[in-house]
Amino acid sequence: MEVYIHPGFFASESSWDIQDENGEVLFSGDAYPAGCDQEYTETNCIDAGCYTFNFYDDSGDGVVYCGGDQTVLVNGDTLINIPTETEAFVVSQEFCASSAEPACEYDYDANGAIGNGDILTMLTEFGCSQDCQYDANGDGTVNVLDVLYILTLIGDCPVEADVNLLLKDLTGQSTTVNSSAASQNNSAGLTIYDISGRIVPRPIFNLASGIYIIKT
Description:
The chain is elongated, with a radius of gyration of 24 Å. By secondary structure, it is mainly beta. It has a four-stranded antiparallel beta sheet with strand order 4-1-6-7, with no helix packed on it. Strand 11 (164-168) and strand 12 (174-178) form a beta hairpin. The protein folds into three domains: 2-97, Immunoglobulin-like; 113-156, Type 1 dockerin domain, CATH 1.10.1330; 164-215, no CATH class. Helix 1 (116-123) packs antiparallel against helix 2. Residues 182-188 have low confidence and may be disordered. The protein has two helices and 14 strands. The longest helix is centred in the middle third of the chain and has 8 residues, at 116-123.
């Protein structure tokens, strides 16, 4: 976890802390010297769980004079951002963090399986049509089709098998492709389509039985 504090010229008015679910203060900062364009960074490890970030402004008028936003990042993701113009004596925001990494592509909640938690995570972006993080079917938007797609993948994350695939075109010519190299669409120059002509976003080693069109 990384905390970025921009207290502004009247820095002594600013302080912050992070508390766990029991209200215990885990990390904090204060007594910053006056000055412009200052940034203070604190990096700490936290366990999976939910926390509260509190930013205190003794004057309650915001950090508007050569200050900046107050930001908390966990695993590179911005979970808290308090704009510099926020006027309040204290601003409290909750955030939750997971210490685990996703076990597979659609394991959005990083619990090692694809299930209801991943669907709920995806629904936080429902309606997104640009730069969507949880666009499961790869069509550029998050909608009911993504929910239906995730439902076809419910279960434990698949174990990637590194195998060579023997592909034959309509003329009978054979091509050998390594599944690791072709695990994503357009990787190694391949695009996979199902029989209806839709691009198949799932890894090639995890394809269901059937007939597919592979464009190289």
